[in-house]
Every structure is written in structure tokens, then in C-alpha cells.
């Protein structure tokens, strides 16, 4: 029962990435805390998906699991599968995993400054990525080409710089260049703009959009910013407390969010141009791991909660073709 | 320190200054550290050219001149010269002889030796113009061997033992500490308990115990290697523990995650991303623990389980100064102690400076 994209979308055949019923625990003080609970979605070649949710919803852990990058221990995979190119990553040898990492799936992270090794020149770091996955083109010229591709001015000079000499936006461009160096088929961007200021955010989003069209790779973008969802995503996965609460094509979801959590998230985004109401915040916080409420995990914060909500766990159901919601009262 | 580069016009104001460059600029401002560095540079250069600088070979015996005092230098007609000495009685005592002094010559021909270990050569930096007159700059020992020459030959052992020992023990410590810290789990547990085991045995007993593993009399080259191996074996554990601690914190850094996400293997990540970040510690630790090896060799040779006669090492030479009567009558036997003191002090000054320079926050 894994949710699939609309049948009329014209993405090429087999899914590049399939996440099926992923369950992941963190072991803490002998206790198993469920961080990701039965998450399923798939991503076709060329498609782009946004994972949306507050901090602590399991978005990053899900994304890191794709290349099995969550260190275990403390993490433990309890169930489910993740298939990249049809192959289960949990059954891969370390060698195969190294091929997948960077080769098929590349990552960029939230803080570019922390993701670059401070003691090496940026050119050498990109070269390292080339050496790993495309040794034949591990040349200075190729590095310069990559820097041009991600829009870095005067690339010949910049390759000799150390990370601390570059601005945050430039550092993120370097990270993107490094991620693209291996010609990955899927780029996973974990909140790539959160640490950057607003104008730079827009530039990076623009760059990702442009690159996606030019290179034709898939994109799995993690964000808690609905502003960039419409810009970049074909489909949106909304997560809350380790579960998917809503999944739909981005246009559908932005026009008609069904789950109360999605609506609340969207209401908390400031709108430009419209009437300037007070922003509505979602009361309370994401529950901590291990202390999820009974029943629907969102019900303590839900404006529409009913008595039944605290009793039975709602199922993720396809209420319209391609639109999945984990709330039985989505109609109201 | 003397060469200040003029700012050439084509030099860009924002020329990339890497971590090493910044490190060097901070170090250059530390006077004591630079003094230490220059002293060490001088000591090591002389040590490399020991055969050339020393007037005699380390094993040249002159039985007639046992415990000859240091030859006094003087000037004769504006040129350096040495006094001649006369010998009295038994046990011998020496006094400056009347009459003409003997010129000191430079680039003199003397006993043949091999320069740098492969160049056969017989030219010495200096020597007395009259080969019958002894030239004992720091006096002679019981067998009439020139202490200055032996000091130079001995420095080849005493000074190099520190560098080789450091290289061995730190590479071992970095590899094991980096591996234990990065991989974690049971291998970490086992390796760290092993380190603690080694560290919990008092050093001197461990030296004696390890020494007894090897045959009592072995060739001097083998002995040299055995000393280095024993001292490094004792020492790697403490650096492994520190490196492991640093690795534990470094592996949580995001650039390590990024390197994993790029598909690098464990070994590559430890070697390329984790260990380079520990270099600032490693360089300081290396400099500060070179004296340990120098003193370790001294201790082993002093206890007669190290370098054997007639080879020269600073520890072995100090061994000859054990007898307090000797020290009273022939204080020049303590010259190797002065050399050890100077070297250890220079290393400590340099190490302190390196530590301050490595810690960017201090300045």
C-alpha cells in the first residue's frame, strides 16, 4: 500500500528510490525510541519530492537512511526496506554502499560551513569527490567547470580558497558542486537554505531548480519552509512525529491541504502582499521521542481534535487519487 | 627570523592564508620557541656532520692521556691556537707546558670517516697543526678518548632516537586511537583497555622487562632499533588515548558525515578527515615528548641495557661519570649532561611555542 504518484505524470518508469514501511528506533538508556514509524514513499527518476515538517519529525533521519548514514548504534532499523535502483540498501555490502553514497545519491546539508573540511582547500575537496566516483575526469579543469555550473564567480581563483574564506552562500554552492561532481541520480538536500540569509536562500533555491532542469536528476528536499515547496517539488510528504501525515502532489497540497497539521504549518508561513494578519503559531511542541501521545500523535495540538482522536491511531488513507491523509476527519 | 619578505606589489591583499601559514606566523612571534628551533637546527646539523666537525673518531683511544683536561684555546698572532700540556705522576695530572703554542688549522686532513654514512672523507673542520698535540675541547675520558668527538658521534644516536621514536609511537597512536574512536564498540573497548594496561606498568620496569626479551649482547645497530622499539611501545598508548578522545568529538562533525555521504571508506575518513584535524595536537605532543626518548635512551644506556661501548651515546657517556670521585676530579665528564640539558630545554621551548601557536584563541 505504498503511496504512488499520480498515474498520469510522465516520469520514466521504475522508481529510483523506494522507501517501504521504514521503521527506525534510537536506543537510549536501554530503551528503544521509535523515530521513524512506517514511512513509505517512492521517488521516480527525475522527480522531486519535499519532506516537510517541524524539527524532530524524523525528516532528516529518513533522508539519511537512504544511504544508511544514520550511525547504528544508537539507531536500529526495525523494519521496512529502502531500495535504491531496486536494490535494498540494508542488504548492501560496505563496498556497494560506498558506491551508492555519492555515486547514486548525493547529499548536501544544512550548514555548509560545517560540512566542508576546514583544513583543505575547496578545490581539493571537490577533486576528492571526483576521484571517488569519476576518476577519469578528476582534473582541475573539471573542478573549475563544476564551480562555473553552480555559479561561483572567478572559479580559477576560488579553488585555492579555504572554506572559511567564503561566504555561507558560496560554501553551499561548493557543497552542491561537490555533490554534483559524481553525476548522482538523486540529490538529497537536508534544509540546504536554513543557515543562509533570505536573499541567498532564494539564490540557492533558484540554483537547485535550474540544475534539476539542466541535469535531470531527482531531488529529495527537506525543509520546514512551505515557501520553497511550490517552487521545487512535484510531490510533498508531510511528516509529524515520525509518521507521514499527508502526501500529495505539491499543487494539490498547496491548494487544498487536508490534514490539520499541514494546514497549521501553512498558516504559520507569512504571506507577501496579502492582508497582514497575525501569524498563527501551532501551540505546543513536537512531542519528544518515546513520549508520543496515544491515538493520533497530533491531537494535543490539533485545533479540530475530537474525543476519538486520543483513542485510535488513524491510518494513512488515500482519500483522492494520489492524495494520502492520516486523519479520519479530513473532510471537515 | 631574519628574512622579512618585502611586500611585492603583485601580492594580493587577500592571498589565501592556510592554517599552516597562520600557524607559522603565530609561531614566528614567539622568541623562546624560535630560539629553541634554531638551537635544535644547529644541533641536528652538527649531528649530521659529526664526522666532519669532530677532530677524532669516537673510538680513538690515547692511553697516554687518560682524563686529559679540556685543552685551553688561545690566540697566537691573532690566530687561534692551543696550549700544549705536560703530564706528571701516577695517577696522571696535567699542566700547561712552557714553550710555543700549537696553531689550530681549519680543513685539516685527519682520520678517515664516512660523511652522512656514505661519503668516504678525511677532511676535518679543524685540528691541531701538529698531530702529536692532542686537541681535547671538552677533555678526555678514562681511555683518553676525546669527549667532544664522542659527544658529536653520540648525538647521532641520542638526537635521532627521539625523532624515530616519535614517528613510530605517534603513527601507531594515531592509527589505533583514530580507529578505536571512529569505529567504537568492542574494538574501542579492547584497544583502550590495552592502552591502560601498558600505561599502568611503571616505565622503568617495562623497559627492563622488554629488554630481557632480547639477547643480552647484540650488535649496536640492532640495539639502537631495540631501544627505539621499546621506548615507542611504552609511549604509543598515551597518545592513542588522546587521539581517540579527539576522534570521538571529530566524528560527530558534519564534514565527517559529508565525507561518508560522499562514499568514502572508513579508512579514508580516518586518514583524510579525522587525523589531519588532530595535527595541531600531534605536532605539539611530538615536540614535547622528544625529550622523553632522549632521556629514555640515557636511562637505558646508563643502566647498561642500551648502547654498548665503544659506541658513543650521551647516556653511555654519562655512565662513565657515575663515580663521584671522577666527577669531582674530572668535571668535564659531565659534558653530555649539558648537551642533554640544552637539547631538552630547546625542545620544551619549541613545544610550548608550538602549543601556543596551535591554539588560535590564545593570541
Question: Can you give a write-up of this model?
Answer:
The complex is a heterodimer of chains A (332) and B (363). Chain A has helices at 59-65, 94-103, 112-115, 122-133, 140-149, 155-158, 168-180, 198-215, 229-232, 250-255, 260-267, and strands spanning 12-28, 31-45, 48-52, 75-84, 87-88, 105-108, 186-190, 218-223, 235-240, 243-249, 317-320, 323-325. Chain A is of the alpha/beta class and 332 residues long. In chain A, helix 4 (122-133) runs parallel beside helix 7 (168-180) and helix 5 (140-149) packs across helix 7. Chain A is globular. Chain B folds into 2 domains: 60-145, no CATH class; 149-358, MetI-like fold. Chain B contains 13 helices and 6 strands. In chain B, a hairpin with a 3-residue loop joins strand 5 (102-115) and strand 6 (119-128). The longest helix of chain B is centred in the middle third of the chain and has 37 residues, at 147-183. Mean pLDDT of chain B is 82; it is low at 1-13. The chains are: A alpha/beta (332), B alpha+beta (363). At the A-B interface, helix 2 and helix 4 of A face helix 8 of B.
Q: What layout of secondary structure does this protein have?
A:
The complex is a heterodimer of chains A (332) and B (363).
Chain A (H helix, E strand, L loop, with lengths): L11 E17 L2 E15 L2 E5 L6 H7 L9 E10 L2 E2 L5 H10 L1 E4 L3 H4 L6 H12 L6 H10 L5 H4 L9 H13 L5 E5 L7 H18 L2 E6 L5 H4 L2 E6 L2 E7 H6 L4 H8 L49 E4 L2 E3 L7
Parallel strand pairs in A: 3-8, 3-9, 6-7, 7-8
Antiparallel strand pairs in A: 1-2, 1-4, 4-5, 9-10, 10-12, 11-12
Helix pairs in contact in A: 4-5, 4-7, 5-7, 7-8
Chain B lengths: L18 H10 L2 H18 L1 H4 L19 E4 L2 E4 L2 E4 L4 E4 L5 E14 L3 E10 L18 H37 L1 H16 L2 H9 L8 H31 L3 H8 L4 H9 L4 H24 L11 H6 L4 H6 L5 H24 L5
Antiparallel strand pairs in B: 1-2, 2-5, 3-4, 5-6
Amino acid at each position: 500500500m505504498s503511496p504512488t504518484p499520480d498515474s498520469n505524470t510522465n516520469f520514466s518508469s521504475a522508481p529510483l528510490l523506494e522507501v517501504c514501511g521504514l521503521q527506525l528506533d534510537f536506543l537510549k538508556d536501554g530503551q528503544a525510541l521509535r523515530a521513524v514509524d512506517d514511512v513509505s514513499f517512492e521517488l521516480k527518476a527525475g522527480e522531486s519530492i519535499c519532506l516537510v515538517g517541524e524539527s524532530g519529525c524524523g525528516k532528516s533521519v529518513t533522508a539519511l537512511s537512504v544511504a544508511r548514514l544514520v550511525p547504528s548504534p544508537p539507531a536500529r532499523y526495525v523494519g521496512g526496506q529502502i531500495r535504491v535502483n531496486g536494490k535494498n540498501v540494508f542488504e548492501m555490502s560496505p563496498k556497494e554502499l560506498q558506491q551508492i553514497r555519492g555515486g547514486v545519491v548525493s547529499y548536501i546539508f544544512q550548514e555548509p560551513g560545517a560540512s566542508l573540511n576546514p583544513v583543505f582547500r575547496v578545490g581539493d575537496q571537490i577533486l576528492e569527490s571526483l576521484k571517488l566516483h569519476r576518476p577519469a575526469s578528476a582534473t582541475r579543469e573539471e573542478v573549475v567547470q563544476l564551480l562555473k555550473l553552480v555559479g561561483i564567480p572567478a572559479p580559477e581563483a576560488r579553488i585555492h580558497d579555504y572554506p572559511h574564506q567564503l561566504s555561507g552562500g558560496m560554501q553551499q554552492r561548493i557543497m552542491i558542486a561537490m555533490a554534483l561532481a559524481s553525476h548522482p541520480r538523486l540529490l538529497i538536500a537536508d534544509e540546504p537554505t536554513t543557515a543562509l540569509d533570505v536573499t541567498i536562500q532564494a539564490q540557492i533555491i533558484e540554483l537547485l531548480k535550474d540544475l534539476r532542469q539542466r541535469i535531470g536528476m531527482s531531488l529529495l528536499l527537506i525543509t520546514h519552509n512551505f515557501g520553497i515547496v511550490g517552487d521545487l517539488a512535484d510531490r510533498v510528504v508531510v511528516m509529524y512525529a515520525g509518521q507521514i501525515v499527508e502526501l500529495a502532489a505539491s499543487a494539490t497540497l498547496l491548494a487544498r491541504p487536508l490534514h490539520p497539521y499541514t494546514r497549521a504549518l501553512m498558516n504559520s508561513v507569512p504571506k507577501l502582499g496579502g492582508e497582514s494578519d497575525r501569524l498563527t503559531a501551532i501551540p505546543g511542541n513536537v512531542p519528544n521521542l518515546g513520549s508520543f501521545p496515544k491515538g493520533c500523535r497530533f491531537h494535543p495540538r490539533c485545533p479540530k481534535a475530537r474525543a476519538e482522536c486520543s483513542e485510535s491511531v488513524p491510518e494513512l488513507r488515500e482519500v483522492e487519487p494520489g492524495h494520502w491523509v492520516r486523519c479520519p476527519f479530513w473532510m471537515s | 627570523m631574519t628574512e622579512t619578505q618585502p611586500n611585492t606589489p603583485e601580492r594580493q591583499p587577500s592571498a589565501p592564508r592556510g592554517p599552516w601559514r597562520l600557524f607559522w606566523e603565530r609561531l614566528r612571534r614567539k622568541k623562546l620557541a624560535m630560539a629553541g628551533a634554531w638551537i635544535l637546527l644547529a644541533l641536528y646539523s652538527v649531528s649530521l656532520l659529526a664526522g666532519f666537525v669532530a677532530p677524532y673518531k669516537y673510538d680513538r683511544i690515547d692511553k697516554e692521556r687518560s682524563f686529559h683536561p679540556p685543552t685551553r684555546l688561545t690566540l697566537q698572532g691573532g690566530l687561534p691556537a692551543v696550549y700544549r700540556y705536560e703530564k706528571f705522576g701516577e695517577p696522571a695530572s696535567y699542566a700547561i707546558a712552557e714553550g710555543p703554542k700549537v696553531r689550530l688549522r681549519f680543513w685539516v686532513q685527519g682520520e678517515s670517516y664516512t660523511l652522512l654514512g656514505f661519503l668516504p672523507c678525511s677532511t676535518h673542520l679543524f685540528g691541531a697543526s701538529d698531530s702529536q698535540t692532542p686537541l681535547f675541547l671538552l677533555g678526555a675520558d678514562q681511555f683518553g678518548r676525546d669527549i667532544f668527538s664522542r659527544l658529536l658521534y653520540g648525538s647521532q644516536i641520542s638526537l635521532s632516537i627521539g625523532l624515530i621514536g616519535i614517528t613510530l609511537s605517534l603513527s601507531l597512536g594515531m592509527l589505533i586511537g583514530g580507529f578505536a574512536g571512529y569505529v567504537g564498540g568492542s574494538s574501542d573497548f579492547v584497544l583502550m583497555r590495552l592502552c591502560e594496561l601498558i600505561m599502568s606498568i611503571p616505565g622503568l620496569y617495562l623497559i627492563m622487562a622488554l629488554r630481557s626479551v632480547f639477547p643480552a649482547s647484540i650488535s649496536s645497530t640492532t640495539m639502537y632499533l631495540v631501544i627505539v622499539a621499546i621506548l615507542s611501545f611504552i609511549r604509543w598508548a598515551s597518545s592513542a588515548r588522546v587521539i581517540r578522545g579527539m576522534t570521538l568529538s571529530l566524528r560527530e562533525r558534519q564534514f565527517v558525515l559529508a565525507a561518508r555521504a560522499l562514499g568514502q571508506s572508513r579508512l579514508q575518513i580516518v586518514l583524510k578527515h579525522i587525523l589531519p584535524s588532530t595535527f595541531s595536537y600531534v605536532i605539539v605532543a611530538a615536540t614535547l615528548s622528544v625529550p622523553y626518548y632522549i632521556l629514555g635512551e640515557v636511562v637505558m644506556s646508563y643502566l647498561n641495557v642500551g648502547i654498548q661501548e665503544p659506541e658513543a651515546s650521551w647516556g653511555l657517556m654519562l655512565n662513565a661519570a657515575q663515580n663521584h670521585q671522577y666527577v669531582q676530579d674530572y668535571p668535564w665528564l659531565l659534558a653530555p649532561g649539558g648537551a642533554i640539558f640544552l637539547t631538552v630545554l630547546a625542545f620544551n621551548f619549541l613545544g610550548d611555542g608550538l602549543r601556543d601557536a596551535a591554539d588560535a584563541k590564545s593570541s
